[in-house]
Amino acid sequence: MTNIANTPNAPSTPSTPITPGTPGTPGTPGTHTGAALSAALPIQGARILIVGAASLVGSHTADHLLAAGVGEVILLDNFAFGTHEAIAHLDNHPRVRVVRADITRLNELLLATEGVDGVLLLAAYMTLGFAQSPWQAIDVNIRGAQNVIEACRVNKVRKLVFASSNAVYGYGPGIKGALVEEGPFHVTGAPPAAIMYGASKIMGEQLCRQAHQKSGLQYVVLRYSTVYGERQHYRAANSLYIMETYDKVRKGERPVLPGDGSESKHFVYVGDVARANLAAFESPATDVAVNVSGVDPTTTRELVQMVLDYCKSDLQPEIRPDAPGTVRLTSGGAFHVAHELAATVIGWQPVVPMREGIARLLAWREAQS
Ligand SMILES: NC(=O)c1ccc[n+]([C@@H]2O[C@H](COP(=O)([O-])OP(=O)(O)OC[C@H]3O[C@@H](n4cnc5c(N)ncnc54)[C@H](O)[C@@H]3O)[C@@H](O)[C@H]2O)c1
Q: Is 302 exposed, middle or buried (0-12, 13-18, 19+ CB in 10 A)?
């Protein structure tokens, strides 16, 4: 484990005040009533370790933690696909430490969690990663998660926030209507890699729950829908579509609609996700899983139109089936990922509408080129 940087303050949007709600509801994992009161971890002055920090969610969460007065934020990553660029704006910040370590190595996590109050576990392979490297994906998402949990137990970390996904509801024809926390896992008619990714997140959630039951680990699971925003990478199937659409339009090529454009997508802006992470630490909630999704769902056609509007382009989308071998996340009809429980349990709700978020993402993307 090597400290590779100690970095400068990043301008960051302060997190909104958090109103703790009532932890646990029927149909979600149970809440230990007595423990719930002690599960709140105030950010002010705390030492928070972000595992899998050198990327989209981790870098934004670090910004929000610093703005909220965190004592120290430790950014741990093995840089397998995260980059130093994503956290370069934090170089030499007096309250930031960067640690190069791998979550498949328990000894490195035991060192990194010493004296830490809270851990945010982000490191994972997503659907495209499961399609490309199933061995590594299994090691990181399952054994890696258990390593992080064990390190938290050994070093008496006060709270773990586990980044799960709406992939735990599965994909395919069974996905329609409101996806709520007690919903089933649909496997029929979906790409195997997407189902394996969802199954690995179910494993991670249940490893947290088992540790709560066996050793009293306080944790909150956040099931993000598709995250997008500044510092976007090209690894998540749905956000990749936004980037590919933008890249085409900028080259003067017609954007492609894989279908009639009515397919639902539910994204969440990364700043809203960062706020949810802070809310999960600060809330008294424990042993619970809640959805973290954007203000509203969208359709593929609306999404493409937002990109065209941003680029002031009048190109017409071309309807074209996916190329063979494309891994695409399918649903059975209009759906949305319901986020009402998060308001009750951790006092969080999304605030950035898709059009606004797309404008922020594309302004950032433009500044890169
Ligand atoms: N991005 C999305 O659309 C989305 C949607 C739902 C859920 N999630 C979940 O949110 C989390 C964060 O998403 P993201 O897009 O910021 O993630 P990401 O794909 O950029 O990965 C996070 C980081 O984990 C690091 N990492 C990978 N293997 C590691 C290892 N063995 N040890 C240490 N670090 C390792 C990577 O280098 C990367 O910087 C993930 O758990 C993901 O499953 C993401």
A: middle
